[in-house]
Amino acid sequence: MTEKLDADDPTATAERVRATLGEGPVLALTGAGISTDSGIPDYRGPDSPPRNPMTYQQFVGDPAFRRHYWARNQVGWRHMERTECNDGHRALADLESGGTVSAVVTQNVDTLHELAGSRRVVDLHGRYDRVICLECREVTSRSSLDERLAELNPDFSVTVEDIELAPDADAVLSSTEGFRVADCAACGGMLKPDIVYFGENVPKPRVEEVYGLVERAQGLLVAGSSLTVFSGRRFVKRAAQQGKPVVILNRGATRCDDLAALTVDAGCSEVLRALASSCAQPADPTWMEATTPPSTRMSVPET
Known about the structure:
303 residues, Rossmann fold, Ssirtuin_cat_dom, metal-binding, zinc, NAD-dependent protein deacetylase
């Protein structure tokens, strides 16, 4: 049965999370909720407005959709580039450095885990700072494309303060008429952000890599994800099938609450920082044994 907590006391909550997961190493799976403290909006948070993200089929099938996307992205990616990591990202990096977290699998494309110092990061849905050609598969930087788009659209000027930002280096613009799109400089093919769109599959080798991480981990910590999309949810299901403890830290309910040993309805930064501080201290095996439900107990190394 799932235990549910509200993080009124981050320190006590962190101890409960630690008791449930044990000493690890555990795999971290993150979503948009971990980056909201950095000023990046999420898709499905309790206070998020309805959003209709562009699908892969729309992007490749309609030049008007592509034009509209690239115009929006020309504004949104610059905001993403200026975004800084927050204490939730830094806490996960500290947990990895201390050996509690084995790796971070993120559904975000903002690259903030790497900026915070995480060394083993799997960008499940790609990265906002790269562009791929759908013909020759050449990958280039988004900054180099920025220069080309600026040359093609010298009169296009929108500041971040004037528009509503959206996730995935996107922005809400009322009109993109006249915006000119750049093709691949190498072969003339169609360029696309190196991001997995809705309606597009995560590359199979990447999925298998994450399954391997789940296999080797002692548990799974989900931070800031509603687990609505299958691309991330499947790893929670795999961990649960293997009898490994799952802890979900998220504002609001998720689609995998019934699979978790513990759910925490809270933001990520304070709880993850408290968890990093807790894990930096030797565990009390007696306390861990007394407070951990039998179904989720893990061995605690002697200290």
